[in-house]
Amino acid sequence: MGAGAGGGAARLADPAGALDELVAGDVTVRARLDSGWRDLTDQGRLALGRLAALPLSLLFTLPEAAAALGRPERLALRTLEALTDTGAVTSPTGEVTAHAALYALPRLTHLHAREHSTVLADNLN
Asked: In this structure, is the dihedral angle defined by the CA atoms of residues 101, 39, 11 and 117, taken in order, positive or negative?
């Protein structure tokens, strides 16, 4: 493998550039994620932006999500369920009780939501 492959891997590892590097023909990952972001409700975008503050690429629990969302666990669970239905949040461990479940934001979704939550915060200030 030449220097180009190594450079591409480095660019993908950089959170700021990863979304711009992934292109298949005329389809960009960023455009697909932008479309999914627009399809969310205002509450869904706000919740996803808050969850994006959690550590990148780590699983999180319902109590951690509730803290990030600033909501009681029962309401946070409803939010997680709604975001899971859209594919924005996953539960890689399968079906278990809500308090034992682990959740994840797919890496690219997480990066995209972080970008948008920063833009939202900047617009509010």
From this structure: negative
Neighbours of 125 (CB within 10 A): 5
Q: Report the chain's terminal Cα–Cα distance, integer Å.
A: 47
Handedness of CA 66, 69, 75, 80 (dihedral sign): negative
Q: How confident is the model at residue 1 (pLDDT cuts 50, 70, 90)?
A: very low
How many whole angstroms separate alpha carbon 118 and alpha carbon 74? 27
Residue 15 has pLDDT above 90, yes or no: no
Which burial class, exposed, middle or buried, applies to 3 when counting CB atoms under 10 A from its CB (0-12, 13-18, 19+)?
exposed
pTM for the full predicted model: 0.76
The secondary element (H helix, E strand) that includes residue 49 is: helix 42-51
